[in-house]
Each structure stands twice: as C-alpha cells, then as structure tokens.
Design goal:
Elements: H1 3-18, H2 22-28, E1 32-36, H3 41-54, E2 59-64, E3 83-87, H4 93-100, E4 106-109, H5 116-121, H6 123-143, E5 148-154, H7 155-158, H8 179-198, E6 202-207, E7 210-211, H9 223-232, E8 238-240, E9 246-247, E10 250-251, H10 252-264, E11 272-275, E12 281-282, H11 283-294, E13 301-303, H12 319-325, H13 333-346, H14 348-354, H15 363-367
Parallel strand pairs: 1-2, 1-4, 2-3, 4-5, 5-6, 6-11, 7-10, 8-13
Antiparallel strand pairs: 9-12
Helix pairs in contact: 1-3, 3-10, 6-8, 9-11, 11-13
C-alpha cells in the first residue's frame, strides 16, 4: 500500500468511528477553508479530514513555509484533488493576500514557531512568527469577513508551572518559562481582542502534547517522534529528569476532531478550552512502550531536567470541551502509539531524509 493511501485510510477510518452528525458534514460541504501550518503534523491530518468533509465542491487552502522539515516537500501529505498548496509565510503580506484572495470562510491557524527550546534559542523570531503572524491573520480575517477563526493555542504553554491537576480553563499563569509559552498566551489575548472589538468569531483551542502520524523527528520537535526515531535506529533514549514526570499525550486525530467541532458549534465562539486525552502517561512508561514497539534493547541514558521544563505533571480537564463542542477523544494512547510507529516504518526513507538534528543540544543524544 502506498504511504499516502495508508494516511488517507487512517483518517477516513477515524472519521468513520467518529460518526460525525449529518449537520456537521452539511456545514462543511462546499466550503473554502484556509489552514495555516497545514503541512505539519496536526495540519496535514486536519487538511486530509477537511478535504473529505468539504467534498468536490470545496477547497482546502494550505499555507506553510515547510520550516519544520528539511527540504521542500511535505512528508506524506496525501495528494488531494480539492487542496491548494501555497508555500509561504504568515508574516508575508503578499503570501497572505494570495491565500485570502480565495475568500476562505473558515481559518484554522496552526502555523507556529515550534516550540519551547526553539523559542529559547531564537526569541525574536519566535515573537515575530507567533505574535505578528496571528495579528496579520486576524486583521485580514475580520477585514474579509471570515465566518470563524480557530486558533491552535497550547495548554502546555498557557498554564505555566503551578496549576492544580487536572488543569481547567479558569486557571491562567504568568509564571511562564519560555518565549513560546508567552507568545501562545499573547495569541489568545489578540484572538479575544478581535472577538470583542471587531466581532470576529474566534475560538481558542488549547492543545496538549500531540502525537501521531505526520510529525517528523528533529531537534525542536516533540518527544514521541524523536523517541520513535532514535529507538528504530537502536539508540539509547534520553531520559531528562526522573521518568516519573507525566504528560497528557493526545492522539493527533482526536485534536482534529476538536478543531472540526470547534468551528461548527456556536457555543465555542469567544471561548477557550482544552483539547487533550484527559489521561496521564509517565515518561518512563512511554520509553518502555516505544522501545518494545521497535524492539530496541539499548539501555536508557539519563540527563538532568532542562532548565525551562518545570512541569512535573500535565493533565488536562476536558469537561468544558465536552460541554461546548461534544468533544470525546476516542483513540487510546497504546493504539495511537502503535499507529505512529507503523507510520514511521511506512515512511522510513523520507523520515530519515527529513530528520533535522544539527550540531548543538541534540548531538549528545545522536552519538549514544
């Protein structure tokens, strides 16, 4: 089976299990939708799902500068007859004019300068992309009378270091330890401003620890794709901290479900809510599962916790998302992880070419 066909089947099988109500399908059919960051891990899965929902009469516009990978080709973004891809930057006026000329009725803003360590190393670029970028998008969206603007925020960022578990939306922290966290908080504030001042219908979705098919490994990427990559190479996995730290790992298609519903349900307008699994996983247990899935027997190497990584636990409440948009994660962590490993195996040559670990903080791990 071709890898793109495998990806399509994975998304369509999930949508079949989700069994979206008829009115949601009717809402999306025939629409023109803009997805910034649409070639990324979450974005490419969202684009694939939306392509199915809008049908032959609809169009999905993808704006992505492909900065998350080496090279000029998205990894395993299926060829979709109703997708229009623009390689461009959300900070570029000409690129934005090009995509808004297509008159999208919904904007999903997923593009970001990802993530914590990257923002620590390059704080000015991080602010430029994540703050100036969203201002430009919000301004054009209200000017062109976009119906809905859905912002991919981050619960891992917004809540800082001292929240009570499970994290609920009424807790906001100013104890933020990276520019990425600061910028995601600012993004929500600008989203709220355009809602209150201009009446733009905005929604803030707070993601937690996404994983699944579509994300390539790299120095500034998430822990699971890096762990899977190193494990498949037979390398020692790095444990920063004790291993008892927890994260709320959320399968990428459950996040896609939340985004699709966030744009549909009117109760979501002007709101901010968590999109997560509502389940904690210890990092040491994650390492065990990844090594078992890839049959890697190389012992773990322990490192000190990173200075900015002050969160010992992460667990989100998804009660509000359930009430507002009928959000219900349906994929177990174990099944999602197996699917992630299978995607790596199916795309192994492409992933090896795209993996980006330049000389620097990750070099020690690469040599183990």
């Amino acid at each position: 089976m071709e890898t793109s066909e495998l990806r399509l089947n994975t998304v369509h099988e999930y949508l079949g299990r989700l069994n979206l109500a008829g009115e949601i399908k009717d809402y999306y059919e025939g629409r023109t939708i803009l997805v910034t960051g649409g070639a990324g891990a979450i974005g490419s899965n969202l684009v694939t799902a939306l392509s199915h929902l809008v049908g032959d009469e609809g169009t999905i516009i993808v704006l992505d500068n492909l900065s998350a990978i080496k090279g000029d080709d998205p990894i395993d973004l299926p060829p979709l007859g109703n997708m229009f891809f623009v390689k461009g930057d959300i900070r570029s006026d000409s690129d934005l004019k090009r995509v808004f000329r297509e008159k999208p009725s919904i904007v999903f803003h997923l593009a970001a300068f990802f993530a914590n360590q990257n923002s620590v190393d390059y704080p000015e670029t991080s602010a430029d992309v994540d703050i100036n970028g969203i201002i430009k998008l919000l301004d054009l969206s209200q000017f062109t009378q976009v119906e809905k603007f859905v912002y991919a925020s981050s619960g891992c960022a917004i809540y800082g270091s001292y929240g009570k578990m499970p994290l609920t939306e009424d807790f906001i922290s100013l104890h933020l330890t990276t520019p990425y966290q600061i910028n995601k908080t600012a993004g929500e504030m600008y989203s709220n401003f355009y809602y209150h001042h201009y009446g733009l219908k905005t929604v803030n979705c707070r993601f937690f620890n996404s994983f699944g098919p579509g994300e390539v490994p790299g120095q500034y990427r998430n822990v699971i794709p890096n762990f899977v990559y190193w494990s498949m190479l037979g390398k020692s996995l790095p444990l920063t901290g004790t291993g008892d730290e927890t994260r709320d790992f959320t399968y990428v298609l459950d996040l896609v479900q939340g985004l699709i519903k966030a744009a549909y349900y009117e109760d979501a307008i002007g709101q901010a809510f968590n999109l997560a699994s509502g389940r904690e996983t210890k990092i040491k247990d994650l390492i065990t599962m990844v090594n078992e899935a890839s049959e890697n027997k190389t012992p773990v190497t322990q490192y000190p916790a990173r200075k900015w990584d002050t969160k010992k636990r992460l667990l989100a409440s998804i009660e509000l998302a359930g009430k507002l948009i009928n959000y219900k994660p349906i994929e177990s962590f174990e099944n999602g992880l197996r699917g992630n490993v299978n995607w790596f195996k199916a795309n192994w040559d492409k992933i090896q070419s795209a993996a980006d670990f330049p000389i620097g903080m990750s070099s020690a791990v690469r040599k183990k």
